[in-house]
Automatic annotation (TrEMBL):
Pathway: Nucleotide-sugar biosynthesis; UDP-alpha-D-glucuronate biosynthesis; UDP-alpha-D-glucuronate from UDP-alpha-D-glucose: step 1/1. Residues 322-426 form the UDP-glucose/GDP-mannose dehydrogenase C-terminal domain. The keyword NAD applies. It is an enzyme of class 1 (oxidoreductase). Its EC number is 1.1.1.22. It catalyses: UDP-alpha-D-glucose + 2 NAD(+) + H2O = UDP-alpha-D-glucuronate + 2 NADH + 3 H(+). PROSITE patterns: PROKAR_LIPOPROTEIN. It comes from Ramlibacter ginsenosidimutans. This is UDP-glucose 6-dehydrogenase. The lineage of its organism: Bacteria, Pseudomonadati, Pseudomonadota, Betaproteobacteria, Burkholderiales. The keyword Transmembrane helix does not apply. One of its GO terms (biological process) is polysaccharide biosynthetic process.
Length: 445
């Protein structure tokens, strides 16, 4: 099958590369000429495990190509994914300008009936707007081509994107109920990912659009609830990690995605919460639970910084804090809305200097932290510790999982470890002579 993908970021690039890997001929386009140049050379502009191999295979086989040219994109295929960004607008709603601009570009050039698939996360009703945007251009040109619009939201997780795309737990597809041609295209396109059991959930377009927000917001609420419990555990001298295991053993609850920590970030949860809150309020009903989840998270992202400042008596002048982890989670270079940024700001404001290290996110963090004096981004976990009073661990990267606590105790002048992801056994940390502070762990020992 020939497929065009508009937008070559985390979602578009993974979608295009994986679909090329299963035998399709895919053209990925993007407005960012620098990104496309790098991709043509086989350089991957983002950190995503396994993606380099899949892209290299597609390029070598000639099944994966990159362009900045909409004319080429439209000429290439009668199936076009839209996978551009949908950032938050000032009022919290999803900014659809990129999606609708892509739709208009398609309409301006379409020379045959086309299936447009909205993969970006978009509010209920957006597919109708996409159809209208394309049709407006077709009418202006006076051409008779038909546009069919489907919703196929993406559920991949950054850091596991290729694996998630290749082995999806579900493929949600929203089409008009009688659009059998669109359904056949999806069945054919996703057949390689759908062999062992049925993973495609066909539904109407609006329900598909909503499913994506419902999933992300449910996960966000779960994390915020766990964080609220952790903060209560701290006050009650309870260990949230023991509680987590006990609670997660209930099959109705399950053990996944139940970790207390320094708050959630990234390009999806905070933005999708804002968008669904906005949708809910616009529809006449306050989004009370989601607002609470949002507020708890804003508080949680400041918590680790506050713990550090409080430990040093409210002032960090002359102190250096080592920070391990800048990405919003492990295995990605994405620092969009990452807790690390809030923590760094709190530390700087209290007068500290920060030495921060991340295995993949140094480049993205350098851009995000531009203009903040007092932060040094360094090339290794050990280098971050040089001259540091304390260590704060903010991202759960594998390489931070089992440090030599004796060595940390020798290096950290004030011998204190702040564990923002509850990675460590407090007893092991304390045995090395370090003070341990986690999230909701004051009840340990
Ligand atoms: P991204 O910012 O990494 O990529 C978007 C790309 O689209 C950029 O490269 C940008 O240059 C390009 N672009 C913008 N306007 C364009 C246009 N008119 N024509 C062509 N290219 C254009 O974003 P992302 O993280 O890939 O997210 C894309 C969408 O997928 C969003 O709606 C997001 O909510 C959703 N989503 C993201 C994830 C994730 O983990 N990142 C997961 C599921 C869904």
């Amino acid at each position: 099958m020939k497929i065009t993908v508009i937008g070559s970021g985390y979602v578009g690039l993974v979608t295009g590369a994986c679909l090329a890997d299963t035998g399709n001929h895919v053209l990925c386009i993007d407005l960012d000429a620098g990104k496309i140049d790098r991709l043509r050379r086989g350089e991957i502009p983002i950190h995503e495990p396994g993606l380099d191999t899949v892209v290299a295979r597609g390029l070598a086989a000639g099944r994966l190509r990159f362009s900045t040219d909409y004319a080429e994109a439209v000429a290439h295929a009668a199936v076009a994914f839209i996978a551009v960004g949908t950032p938050s607008d000032e009022d919290g709603s999803a900014d659809l300008s990129h999606v609708l601009s892509a739709a208009r570009e398609l309409g301006r050039r379409m020379e045959r009936d086309t299936l447009v698939i909205v993969k970006s996360t978009v509010p209920v009703g957006t597919s109708d707007k996409v159809r209208a945007a394309v049709q407006e251009q077709l009418q202006a040109r006076g051409v008779p081509h038909k546009v069919s619009v489907a919703s196929n939201p993406e559920f991949l997780k950054e850091g596991l994107a290729v694996e998630d795309f290749m082995r999806p737990d579900r493929i949600v597809v929203g089409t008009d109920p009688d659009d059998h041609r669109a359904k056949d295209i999806f069945r054919e396109m996703y057949a390689p990912f759908n062999r062992n059991h049925e993973r495609i959930f066909f539904m109407d377009v609006r329900s598909a659009e909503f499913t994506k927000y419902a999933s992300n917001c449910m996960l966000a609420v779960r994390i915020s609830f766990m964080n609220e419990l952790a903060n209560l555990a701290d006050r009650l001298k309870v260990d949230i990690e023991q509680v987590r295991r006990g609670v997660g053993a209930d099959p109705r609850i399950g053990p996944h995605f139940l970790y207390a920590g320094a708050g959630f970030g990234g390009s999806c949860f905070p933005k999708d919460l804002r968008a669904l809150i906005h949708t809910s309020e616009e529809s006449g009903e306050p989004a009370e639970l989601m607002r609470a989840a949002q507020n708890v998270n804003l508080r949680q992202r400041r918590l680790l910084g506050q713990k550090i400042v409080a430990h040093f008596g409210g002032k960090l002048d002359g102190r250096t804090i080592a920070l391990w982890g800048l990405a919003f989670k492990a295995n990605t270079d994405d620092v969009r809305e990452a807790s690390s940024i809030d923590i760094i700001d709190a530390l700087l404001q209290a007068g500290a200097r920060v030495r921060a290290y991340d295995p993949a996110a140094l480049e993205t963090a350098a851009t995000a932290l531009k203009g903040r004096a007092g932060v040094s981004l360094v090339r290794s976990a050990a280098e971050a510790l040089e001259g540091a009073d304390a260590l704060a661990v903010v991202t759960e990267w594998l390489e931070f999982r089992s440090p030599d606590f004796d060595d940390l105790a020798r290096r950290l002048k004030s011998r204190v470890l702040f564990d923002g992801r509850n990675l460590y056994d407090p007893f092991a940390v304390r045995r090395a002579g370090l003070v341990y502070q986690g999230i909701g762990r004051s009840g340990v020992g």
